[in-house]
Amino acid sequence: MADKAYITPNVLKWARESARISEEIAAAKVPVSIEKLKEWEAGTSQPTMRQAQTLAKLYKRPFALFFLPEIPRDFQPLQDFRTLGSKALTTSSIFIIREIQQKQSWISDVYADNKEEKLAFVGRFNLNDNPQRVANDILQTLSITPSFYKSDNPIKEWIEAAETKGIFISRTSFIHSRLKLDAEELQGFAISDKLAPFVFVNSDDWNAAQLFTLVHELAHIWIAETGISNEVEPHLKQRDKQHPVELFCNEVAANALMPREIMLDFDVSLFHSSKDVFKMANQFGVSSFALLVRALNLSIISVSTYQKLKKQAELDFIEYQRREAERKAKQKEKEKLGGPNYFLLQLNRNSRLFTQAVLDAFRGGYIEPTLASNLLNVQVNKFQKLESHILR
């Protein structure tokens, strides 16, 4: 007879509920009946060791946690700055938030033990400050000049500049192949910390939206407001449904990505058609919608011009989405043959800066192999290959 796992029932139930996993899904994974799962969570019967280990893996919790005498103190939920009426966070969002919290907590503790210098820009401003002033400070700190990027990949330049200054940037669109992140549910979040600030960007979004999200989340760091965001790009409608912190960070991002002095150099004649707008937006690395809102707010274009170009841009965006869907379908076909680069995916997910910090700690003998592997989502015998991709 298989060994029974004498787990703590309410801890088992808490682990499932905190992962936002239904009884039906959990029971099917083991597999057992829902009634049997309820018995385990009530303490009237016990799972086997193998069954409990299956649930620990499903809930993404250490197996030993199930044997604690009471529910452990978990990471505090991040403040929800998302638009009013947003749907509840699902399992994939819960897991990525928890994963980044674990990484951030570890590296912050390491930096504290090493007496690392605190980052002066974290919390330098607050909601009472001028968003343009905050944006200018971000640009100056990161040494970025918008619209004069060195490549056609501005988000990469922003990430490299941010990590050079000690801000960890994580980007991914999935937990695993069957658990994807929804951009409408979660576009990004920021964990403000004087030693180790962390920013997450959902890469399920398209590039221009990702860049705006990244700079929006950097604004969260500059005003020390930890929290989750969605529907990040500025809108003229539904402003009453947005949190004041989100409205402020949107203003900061708009000012940073499309500085007033550069925008005012544009003649209104440049806003002749949606194609002209797209070219200008591409120069800034933003969407046509973001550029139009910015131009309207700066009185470069009239409301009627904005409305006309917005309608054209919406049609162009539908066509863009169609082409993107075709491109992604072709990309998936290619990936079936060779697959995406696993190490690059993990580097983006972990943050290159964080990956290097963990590898340095591991090579120096400061952390155990198991912890290093868990932090990086990579087996120890693959560390050398992972490290070879950091500078690519």
Keywords:
single chain; about 400 residues; mainly alpha; 434 Repressor (Amino-terminal Domain); 4-stranded mixed beta sheet; two-stranded antiparallel sheet; globular
Description:
With 392 residues, the chain is mainly alpha-helical. The protein has four domains: 9-67, Orthogonal Bundle (434 Repressor (Amino-terminal Domain)), CATH 1.10.260.40; 78-257, no CATH class; 267-337, no CATH class; 342-388, no CATH class. The protein is 53% helix and 6% strand. It has 17 helices and six strands. A four-stranded mixed beta sheet has the order 1-5-4-6, sandwiched between helices. A hairpin with a 2-residue loop joins strand 2 and strand 3 (179-180). Helix 7 (154-164) packs parallel to helix 8 (207-222) and helix 11 (274-284) packs across helix 12 (288-297). It starts with 8 loop residues before the first helix and ends with a helix. The model has no long low-confidence stretch (mean pLDDT 91).
Note the topology.
Blueprint: H1 9-18, H2 23-29, H3 34-42, H4 49-59, H5 91-113, H6 131-142, H7 154-164, E1 168-172, E2 174-176, E3 179-180, E4 188-191, E5 198-202, H8 207-222, E6 227-229, H9 244-257, H10 260-263, H11 274-284, H12 288-297, H13 303-337, H14 342-350, H15 352-363, H16 369-376, H17 383-388
Parallel strand pairs: 1-5
Antiparallel strand pairs: 2-3, 4-5, 4-6
Large-scale geometry: globular
Structural class: mainly alpha
Number of strands: 6
Strand content: 5-15%
